[in-house]
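User: Show me a protein chain along with its predicted structure.
Assistant: Here is one chain, sequence first, then structure tokens.
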Amino acid sequence: MIPYWMSRTQLMLGDESVEKLMQKNVLVIGLGGVGGICAEMIARAGIGKLTIVDNDTIDASNINRQIPALHSTIKMSKAKVLAARLLDINPELDLTVKEVYIKEDITTALLESASWDYVVDCIDTLSSKVFLIKKCFDMKLPIVSSMGAGGKVDPSQIKVTDLSKTHECNLARYVRKRLQALGIKKGLKVVFSPEKPDQSRIIETENAFPKKSIIGTLSYMPAIFGCTVASVVIRDLLAID
């Protein structure tokens, strides 16, 4: 039974596709500016089973770009705030919330804990990101990865492509180098922008562990990245070109 709130999606995709989405199980790791909106768009598309992962709490500096971030939610768990929102969107959503920091042993256990139809990487910590991608390759799990949305202003330049074809993105360059050392040169679908970032908008810091820098970000860019990542998931699950 397709609920009424999904009637516009039903009109767009048809009963069979909507029912297919309602049977799928998706994992979203990282609930920042990209991951939060991505998880929401996946939920609004009608995915039946969703796991969201993030151990961070909301900071006032998140308010300019992150879906869970409001003055009323400062210091609250990003995952819990987003979970309440997702269940308000779809009360029937089979939602699992993991408030954990993604590192190797936890990543392995998480990926082995269920049968995933798609894995979404919205992690911005390099080592954790690369390990997740490599593990998904080893387990032959479908994965899409978001590259850097910070320091960019033009959404028309956002692209979906293979990691091997990325350029002008520092995060993509670092990920590419690490994966090549692990024997992965192509085959990773990513969302990235070739827009050259203004390096003066990046500052080195010791106050944002585990990241080593802070980069200026506009409200709409991470959201558009997140929506684009969500579109990859939905289109791939339904084999829509």
